[in-house]
Design a protein that fits this description.
Blueprint: E1 3-10, H1 13-28, E2 31-34, H2 38-50, E3 59-60, E4 72-75, E5 86-89, E6 103-109, H3 112-127, E7 132-136
Parallel strand pairs: 1-6, 1-7, 2-4, 2-5, 3-4, 5-6
Helix pairs in contact: 1-2
Length: 140
Amino acid sequence: MTTIDFYTHVDDPVGVAARLVAKAWPAHGFVRVLTPDAQATERLDRLLWTAPATAFLPHCRLDSTLAAQTPIIVDHAPEHEGPAAVLINLAPVPPPFFSRFERLAEVVGLDDAAVAAGRERFRYYRERGYELRAHNLANR
């Protein structure tokens, strides 16, 4: 069963996603990030080229010809056919393919809409019997 971690009180969801990618890739070998829209996809794509400054995070978008050989996929398309180790969700709804993954990281922002959507996702997973862990990033 998928292990689900909620990262709450996040002031910069895209930045936190980048840090989670940097930690998850070496540990698990494959990471898929589902962003809410094209703008967030573009921002995270650019960020992964520069952070961390001393490392390279091999990534591409879902429609890239290199997607099958790339260990980090960043896209807002709500689909996934490849390997399924770690999924990072920045979208406001549960990804339809989340249960294929070993781990799911839900990133919840600070604004009222993000908090409400995060609570709905938490309830959705809890009602289906998933074990949930919460990490409050307010003081980090």
